[in-house]
Amino acid sequence: ILANIWGISPKEIEKEFYRKSDVVAQLWSQEFELDLKTQSCVCVDLDGVLCDYVGTWLKFIEYKKVDAATDRSFYTIPDVSIGLKDVSQYSDLKFEFRETGWKASAIMIDGAKELMEFLHKQGDVIVILTSRPVLQHRRIFPDTIKWLKDNQLHYDAIVFEQEKREWILRHLDNVKYCIDDDPSVAVKIANAGIKVYMPAISYNEKTEGENIIRVNSLAEIIEYELKAGV
Fold this sequence. Notes:
The chain is an alpha/beta fold. It has nine helices and eight strands. It has helices at residues 2-6, 10-33, 53-63, 90-99, 112-122, 140-150, 164-171, 183-191, 218-228, and strands at residues 41-44, 51-52, 107-108, 125-130, 157-160, 175-179, 196-199, 212-215. Strands 5-4-1-6-7-8 form a six-stranded parallel β-sheet, sandwiched between helices. Helix 2 crosses helix 6 (140-150) and helix 5 packs parallel to helix 9 (218-228). The chain starts with a helix and ends with a helix. The model has no long low-confidence stretch (mean pLDDT 92).
């Protein structure tokens, strides 16, 4: 009855049932089947590493016919609001961006599939460690799983956490390395003595330091690790 009142079709109910089941199965696996604490882990960020966040945002604002900069070279900082002519629109647009499935159909960065296949073959536990606001936008979790599945990207765990360094230090004892594009996150993790690969992007070009390795492509990470294993 409620489904009819809300205009929800049986197909939509079935779809959401399976989306929720994917989340439950993932959480079960992380809680009861994986030993994140002691196993060798690699932590991989999503947006800016595997997912082309800026490119997907540009597709969204084009779809919305919003007056904004469409040249991606304009977006030299992570804050995509800088491209909007009317910045007051940003909150509403960002909310719609997150609530209407754009995360599930985001653009994949070149080399992402090859990188995740390499990590899978190496035998380490792959932890997707992202700061996506899952508590504010519940559909982000199933959208993230769908995106990873649709793009056939290997992973073992998905963790949504704003304070990545603190989470790593609390929950992981054996981190092989991390991959993250955010300057502040990379510096904090590197200062904890953990190796960080940082994909070179305009907004992190001045970020350097011990344990930080800047790479021009995801393929370079594979090259570095293959050399390290020789």
